[in-house]
């Protein structure tokens, strides 16, 4: 069987970056290695005694599942060992990990924002979970990092990707030249190119939202959901609601099949629930690179100017024509309560 591994692909694509010295390639390979270790632990979670909470609470106030902690440690140590990374912002840590001490201990020029194990509340019910990462190049050339290096707009990402630990484990990433998907072949322990040049259909028949929050949704989202429930598609078929409650799984399906995912602002989540730096920006970069769209309902996600590391944002993402419709409703209903 002819296959191309992630490592071969990265080296092949590096040639497209004339001035690349291989640092980003090494960084992506480091992430791929950590993903294989986390995948091994996720797959045996049901067998070994690593299910259940770690008894600590993370910065989000969420009970830390043991796999959360393990994944966080694994990715951080892989990135630190690789030496290409000068700063890591992780969902599991209030403060970022800064390796750019003024003594210049780190020559790394990349900043990584990561959600080591998103959707971890699904671990003990065996639902797919994921890792999401976002990579920036530092703006300053050396010395201690400043806030301008760390809180960059999503349009400055040099790479972003996710790992989906599901019925099969996939790594999907972009460096701004399209989106490619790799499936882990356990028989050789390698991620192999399985979904080259991924594209999202410009329309779809699936909407993905936590309908349980309906009463708290803004008017534009309520109107959109109502139309999905009451109207049929141009094909005459009804819309389908699909919601797993695991961002990577919901967005992977959306990218493959078309559709729209929404986690809007609400009475309960004034700025939405999802995090800008390590959930929404990377997924927005990937979906845009696959021909989709990602906004707050009003503004493009990738153009948000971050103010803090763990800030939240509303998210409306998926097939372009469906996101356009939601944005039109926000514009038409602005001010409606
Ligand atoms: P809710 C998982 O906890 C997560 O962060 C995302 O993966 C997911 O999309 C969202 O929260 C689900 O949130 O409020 O619908 O349970």
From TrEMBL:
<keyword id="KW-0119">Carbohydrate metabolism</keyword>
<dbReference type="InterPro" id="IPR044015">
    <property type="entry name" value="FBPase_C_dom"/>
</dbReference>
<feature type="binding site">
    <location>
        <position position="118"/>
    </location>
    <ligand>
        <name>Mg(2+) 2</name>
    </ligand>
</feature>
<feature type="binding site">
    <location>
        <position position="243"/>
    </location>
    <ligand>
        <name>substrate</name>
    </ligand>
</feature>
<feature type="binding site">
    <location>
        <position position="273"/>
    </location>
    <ligand>
        <name>substrate</name>
    </ligand>
</feature>
<feature type="binding site">
    <location>
        <position position="91"/>
    </location>
    <ligand>
        <name>Mg(2+) 1</name>
    </ligand>
</feature>
<feature type="binding site">
    <location>
        <position position="117"/>
    </location>
    <ligand>
        <name>Mg(2+) 1</name>
    </ligand>
</feature>
<keyword id="KW-0479">Metal-binding</keyword>
<feature type="binding site">
    <location>
        <position position="115"/>
    </location>
    <ligand>
        <name>Mg(2+) 2</name>
    </ligand>
</feature>
<keyword id="KW-0963">Cytoplasm</keyword>
<feature type="domain" description="Fructose-1-6-bisphosphatase class 1 C-terminal">
    <location>
        <begin position="200"/>
        <end position="330"/>
    </location>
</feature>
<feature type="binding site">
    <location>
        <position position="279"/>
    </location>
    <ligand>
        <name>Mg(2+) 2</name>
    </ligand>
</feature>
<feature type="binding site">
    <location>
        <position position="115"/>
    </location>
    <ligand>
        <name>Mg(2+) 1</name>
    </ligand>
</feature>
<feature type="binding site">
    <location>
        <position position="210"/>
    </location>
    <ligand>
        <name>substrate</name>
    </ligand>
</feature>
<feature type="binding site">
    <location>
        <begin position="118"/>
        <end position="121"/>
    </location>
    <ligand>
        <name>substrate</name>
    </ligand>
</feature>
<dbReference type="InterPro" id="IPR033391">
    <property type="entry name" value="FBPase_N"/>
</dbReference>
<comment type="pathway">
    <text>Carbohydrate biosynthesis.</text>
</comment>
<dbReference type="Pfam" id="PF00316">
    <property type="entry name" value="FBPase"/>
</dbReference>
<protein>
    <recommendedName>
        <fullName>Fructose-1,6-bisphosphatase class 1</fullName>
        <ecNumber>3.1.3.11</ecNumber>
    </recommendedName>
</protein>
<comment type="subunit">
    <text>Homotetramer.</text>
</comment>
<dbReference type="InterPro" id="IPR028343">
    <property type="entry name" value="FBPtase"/>
</dbReference>
<dbReference type="Pfam" id="PF18913">
    <property type="entry name" value="FBPase_C"/>
</dbReference>
<dbReference type="GO" id="GO:0042132">
    <property type="term" value="F:fructose 1,6-bisphosphate 1-phosphatase activity"/>
</dbReference>
<feature type="domain" description="Fructose-1-6-bisphosphatase class I N-terminal">
    <location>
        <begin position="4"/>
        <end position="196"/>
    </location>
</feature>
<keyword id="KW-0460">Magnesium</keyword>
<comment type="similarity">
    <text>Belongs to the FBPase class 1 family.</text>
</comment>
<dbReference type="InterPro" id="IPR000146">
    <property type="entry name" value="FBPase_class-1"/>
</dbReference>
<keyword id="KW-0378">Hydrolase</keyword>
